[in-house]
Amino acid sequence: MSELTTHSVLHKRISTFVEWIKPESAKREGIKNRSNKAREKIKNKAESDEYNLVVVATPNAGSFTTKTGLRRHFRGDAEVEGLDVDLPFVIQDDRDGYTLYSLLDIFYKIVDDCYPDVEKERTKSSIKLKFPDKVNLDIVPMLEGENTDEQILVRSTGEKIKTSVKRHVEFIKKRTEDSAKKVGRVKFNECLRLLKWWRDTQANGSYTLGGDDSPPSFLINLLSAKAFDELSVEKTYAETLAMWFGYLAHLVKSKEAILFTDYNSPTKDYALWSVIDPVNPDNNVVKNWSSLKIDELVSWLEHGRDNWNRIIRYDLEGDDSKSMDQLVELFGNSFKNHTS
Prior knowledge:
The protein is an alpha+beta fold.
């Protein structure tokens, strides 16, 4: 691996792909304006006499803020994640708890009042506004917590999860900033983007981890953060991701608990596997995962590890064609189509 250089065909290809999978920079200003207008429109409606809610805050959140989102891209019948902009609305709860247990229902009506002609979809904890240009806004109602940095996320099941939008953003940004201090262009958030795209490629057609059962972006965030914390980044993407995949394959196969000490001192859960939310030590992100789902993720990571080892070998041997074939297995035909 030490022979790999930033001047190789392999590194240039991956660097080109990293740039392509980002949301188009020309659209960022327009997306920001749309988000700001939605914030104002929905906040005004929520605080109107009709609904009489108190919006405490509308913090910046999600992949748009941390610069880890993907461009929207269609591949056959599958749709790569793309850029969903999270818009949290932190609400002051009423005394009898009505808002707490009806928050999603109330906000669906509010969003429908504001955007009657835009397609809407309810998720476990948000109302997704699906605009024709494929840039979605995820309206995420939350209740205020015990302090200004804490919120309560209310799921459709009635589950209440303590969280902190600010701390989750800091968690990702800190690692991106730390990686930027290393020699070379490889940054944490760009590797995270590549893992998200890889996740979407592997999930396409998967029975166990496909569709709604695909590993959520939050889990990919935490897996990437753990790999970065233990291994950092190298000068090239290939070296970095070869190490990350090998490490994560071992970690998941052994069901080793994934813990972070940024904000607290967590312990593993009693579930099959523990990946603990760095902000809320009581939230095990994979508490409901079966052994079948865990084994499938192990298989993905092991295949990815083997792919990267072959990619590097072929690159060092000067066999660019075989290297490309392995990269397409990881990232789909879009890699070939946008790195030539």
